[in-house]
Input
Amino acid sequence: MPANEKSTTRPAQAQGAQPGREGAMRPEPLAIRDSYRGSEKLLDKIALISGGDSGIGRSVALHFAREGADIAIIYLNEDEDARTTQSLVEQEGRRCLVIQGDCGIAAHCRRAVEQVIDNWGRLDILVNNAGEQHTAAELTDISEQQLRRTFNTNIFGYFFLTQAALPRLAEGAVIVNTSSVTAFRGSKHLMDYAATKGAIQSFTFSLAEALAERKIRVNGVAPGPIWTPLIPSSFTPEEVEHFGEKTLMKRAGEPAEVGPAYVFLASSDASYMTGQFIHINGGGYISA
Output
């Protein structure tokens, strides 16, 4: 069995709408390994995670919870996935606040942060993670509506949520942004998506510089092909069946292989890191 502790076989499948449902995937993504042992790296911290209902966001929520943090997640409309994540966090012995809404709307981001403050009085860790992607064969196939929607979710949402959270972040707080391998090598079929992920990279560098005097660290994770609901809701069944095979490891990764990087960046283990990205892509950066 490979390091992700489950079969890498993924049959051809598709979902008709984004952001996709984790409960409909076969096999379902692995959010956290049974063998992962927490060591109170985030004990009693308060974390807010956008897109925390499924995929990488769920994995981050569960890893943070196993490390002792209480979790608030923001999700768009995947009610069942959000309830599942909440239940899994609570099984780790931590509290979980579930907040429904669109991070591309600034007012919703402000309301989400205030809900966290109203419930727990502070915010220690912000994870900007919500995202969407749509394939297009040519640049001219990308409609104005698609372009605006992708940017609204993937980068405007990061700005809005960070703007809402900043007045509540004290010295020692941490921000972690989810980018993508496409920010560093491009993607001819995901041009608008890749452009937003490049913007996230620059946003992370700039924010790290701006917040250094406040002693708030800002870093990011740039995953490659990871088995999340975005995949069957973005690609054709045939593409899903071969997803990740172009990496050096010849497979897609599991969210459980990404979540620990967020723990590292959010914890004191990364106390001398800011303005940095961790790349988790199975060698996809240099092989695809």
